[in-house]
Amino acid sequence: MSENIERRRFLKCLGASSLILAPLGCSSVKEGESDANKPHYAMVFDQNKCTGCGECKEACNLANNLPEGKSRLLMEQHSGGLEGQPCPHCGKTTECGCERKFVRVSCQQCKNAPCVTVCPTGAAHRDEKTGIVTMDAAKCAGCKYCIAACPYDARFINKETDVADNCDFCLNSKLAIGELPACVQKCRYDALIFGDINDPTSYISKLLRVKDSVRIKPGFGTEPSLRYIPIVKLGV
After folding, report:
1. 117: closest CA among 11, 195, 221?
2. CA dist., res. 92 & res. 177, Å (int)
3. Closest Cα partner for 75 from 163, 169, 7?
4. Is the pLDDT of residue 5 over 90?
5. Fewer CB atoms near the end CB (10 Å): N or C, the chain?
6. Does the keyword 4Fe-4S apply (predicted)?
7. pLDDT: is 38 or 96 the higher one?
8. Burial degree of 65 (CB within 10 A; 0-12, 13-18, 19+)
């Protein structure tokens, strides 16, 4: 039930369309020369490959010891049809799943992260070595300022720790031991790619050079590090 509430809140935040996206070229991302020498870890979600199996979410929950009913990521199911209009494939006006697609809902790992800006104690911060937005549990006062400031509604209070939580690419679990994020490791369809986009030789950099990708509401100026490769249907 709590996951359904979180999904509805996320969709409400994004507006009538659950994923209002714009090409990367339309956003004002300009990294300074100093930033270019630091890692910029990002993730790519390929909507063309995701089947919505949910194994990524299960792996995340296990790796990060999340309490029951809470997740750092959700898989939102979408239909290609229009509400009230007959499906062009089967003719049904109700949900049929003929054009079923999924969207990853999680922290966007913004370069200009509002959660970090508003945190009064410094608990929400950017890791010095990796640049990943994460939490210092010892400093979190549970004020929920970061939750209110997040334009993607992707943060929550972990009831077992009383600390605000977010996807930090498994910084303190998998990355800490030299492994990829749990969700990336678990995805059997290669729908998730993780790496340093400041490294021109990395696979994620090479992928983004040849694939069109988009980000959620780049107009916010948050500069999300989560990139989406949307489904593009070709005519026959």
Report:
1. 221
2. 50
3. 7
4. no
5. C
6. yes
7. 38
8. exposed
